[in-house]
Design a protein that fits this description.
The protein is α/β, with parallel strands linked by helices. The protein has helices at 24-36, 60-72, 110-123, 128-137, 139-145, 149-160, 177-183, 207-215, 227-230, and strands at residues 17-21, 40-42, 50-55, 76-79, 92-96, 99-103, 192-197, 218-221, 238-241, 252-257. The longest helix is centred in the middle third of the chain and has 14 residues, at 110-123.
């Protein structure tokens, strides 16, 4: 296990009632947050209509009492400034709708999450949102071009890489989707890569190793390989311990400890 204590999720609340208990700046901030996501702020009395709740009260005892009442009714509750009472925490959100980047410290430091998000704001262009929407609009065309899901994923991975036609960090990428679909080369052939790891530290992966690990369909690894290294792979990549006698399909990354 990697020690991660939270499962990052995006909860759709458009048109959904969300309890917000609290007055003053804290309460107003939570209401704005709910409204910004399209939710409908409501009172504790309307909790039977809701699935989520925010408790923003100055008195810690009162906040705990309200939180426990709401939890007993089956709601997931966030309590301002009391992470131990929270069923979920709020990340600092970078908005490039429909692209959302959430930075969380699991309640440890909202200030740190904010500063990391501000750094990312300078790096990620506003064009990410239009590019994501254009890719969504082109989904059926991509399925027609590459009916096989694994082949389609490899083609898109190749097109989105740095310097490739749809590089998301370059201006005008969304306008190149049509020409890319018409003239895209065949997707890369599935390959089998073997990495000999000298360290358990994922920061010591080369750029190439980190990229291929994140793209691989199958991970073959020795038992001694660090969970921190394995965490850099796609969550939906198949994983098998070595030695492995099967015939893995797709791009394979084999992780071995350096001898």
């Amino acid at each position: 296990m990697t020690g991660i204590s939270s499962l990052p999720l995006f909860h759709r609340v458009r048109g959904v009632h969300v309890v917000v208990t609290g007055e003053g700046q804290m309460g107003d901030a939570k209401r704005r947050l709910v409204e910004r996501a399209g939710g409908v702020p409501c009172s504790e009395a309307e909790g039977h209509l809701a699935r989520l709740a925010f408790v923003a009260l100055d008195d810690p005892r009162e906040a705990e009492a309200v939180a426990l009442r709401l939890k007993r009714r089956g709601l997931l509750v966030n309590v301002a400034d009391q992470p131990d009472l929270c069923d979920f925490t709020l990340p600092s959100i970078l908005d490039r709708e429909p692209v959302l980047v959430a930075v969380s410290t699991s309640g440890a430091s909202a200030g740190l999450a904010k500063q990391l998000r501000l750094r990312l704001e300078r790096l990620l262009p506003q064009s990410l949102g239009p590019l994501a929407q254009a890719l969504s609009d082109a989904r059926e065309a991509m399925r027609a071009r590459w009916p096989d899901a694994a082949e389609r994923r490899r083609a898109l991975d190749a097109a989105l890489q740095e310097g490739a036609p749809l590089d998301p960090m370059q201006p005008g990428a969304m306008d190149r989707i049509g020409p890319w679909l018409s003239d895209a080369p065949a997707p890369p052939v599935p390959a089998h890569h073997v990495f000999h790891l000298a360290s358990d530290d994922p920061e010591e992966l080369t750029l190439r190793e980190a990229r291929l690990l994140g793209e691989a369909d199958v991970i073959l690894h020795e038992p001694a390989v660090s969970p921190a290294i394995l965490a850099r792979a796609r969550a939906d990549a198949a994983r098998h311990l070595l030695p492995f006698d099967g015939q893995p399909e797709g791009t394979v990354v084999e992780l071995r400890r350096a001898r």
